[in-house]
Amino acid sequence: MYYVEKERKLEVNDSYEVIVVGSGPAGIGAAVAAGRMGAKVLLVEATNAVGGIATTGMMSHFTGSCGSKIYWEILNRQAEKNFFPTESLVSIDPEMLKNTYYEMLEEAGVDVLLYTIVCDAIMEGDKLVGIITQNKCARMAYMAKVVVDASGDGDVAYHAGAAFTLGREADHKMQPATLMFKVGGVDMENAIFPSSFEHTIEVPKGEIQALAREHLPAPAGHCLLYKSTIPGIVTVNMTNIIGVDGTKAEDLTRAELECRKQIEPIVAFLREFAPGYENCYVIGAASLIGIRETRHFHGVKTINENDIYEARQFEDAVVYDAFFNFDVHNITGSGLDKTGSQREFKQTKGYTIPYGCLVPEKIDGLVLSGRNISGTHIAHSNFRAMPICVGIGVAGGIAAALAAKRGCEVRELTAADIQPHL
Length: 422
Prior knowledge:
By secondary structure, this protein is α/β, with parallel strands linked by helices. It has helices at 25-36, 69-81, 94-107, 155-160, 208-215, 249-273, 305-309, 377-383, 386-406, 415-418, and strands at residues 11-13, 18-21, 41-44, 111-113, 117-124, 127-134, 139-143, 146-149, 164-166, 181-184, 202-203, 206-207, 225-227, 234-236, 281-285, 295-297, 317-322, 351-354, 366-368. It has 10 helices and 19 strands. It has a 5-stranded parallel beta sheet. Strands 1-7-6-5 form a 4-stranded mixed beta sheet. Strands 13-14-10-15 form a 4-stranded antiparallel beta sheet, covered by helices on one side.
């Protein structure tokens, strides 16, 4: 059974050269870079704030690194806002990071539209010429010379008909999802901070990761705890839900509910087994579920795990000094997947990402940005790190601005056009 919607006319806004969809680290990088290139830019965000998982998702810190000047600018500007001096420049205060992002967007002349989802793409053949949005006011069409898809899941690219692989190549399964939360009342002098699945710590009642596997409700079963920017408060990365497709509202709802059910048992576990957490209590959970993996779009080029293992330096690179491990969370349970490597990751050099990974195979008028670029499942577990996503976004924003200003297609640009502006 189907219901046919009544035909209606949509108001059209055609005042933008570049539209960036999604305001996570990749979207911020793209919008700021395009704005600084002199393009008229609109940033569209579905939630109530910019920053994505870094802010609304209550992330504890930036992991990995990237040779992007804008990434390092973000770190330094946020650190200046923190009331308490932080032990690490990469620590995140979500509220101060939001303010940092808003300042940078305003300085770059970027218009921001919150509480607005993109529900369709406007196509002329194989060329994307605009987007259709929906918010509390109305459905509206926005036209642009170039659209940067920094939505994480690649929602614009999907509506435009760009080819993609969902999740792991062999079976299309995806990494689990997590709802971050924070606890207060922590004795910081005696507290433990296991920072990875491979980080084992002996506590009075045993080894903390083994205790988590034994006592936490499956599929939770690991212990990851990170200092925040505020004394006595710790960010907890321990909820876990498998079998979730982050492109489906039903799965996102199930993930939210199941992860929330795990919070109280996790706090009870910390009080009993983790030194320093005897009197801890929940002070807040993220407003956005953390989705690690969905669509991998097919680009002119594809980066794979061997490129990262070998720290390849592509001549047509637009992202430099990217460094992280293979952070593959267990697709069937808790902890690290057998294909992942964190503390034991052996490659110590930074790699590069070629421009073709940001350019869809066939669709014009579109730039891929962030975790939705063209890469394999294993490579994605590395380049999805937020600093690298900033670098990808910066390159995408520059490409979009250049194509808009020159009146050419994104695929007609070369890395040599983009590199001087990085």
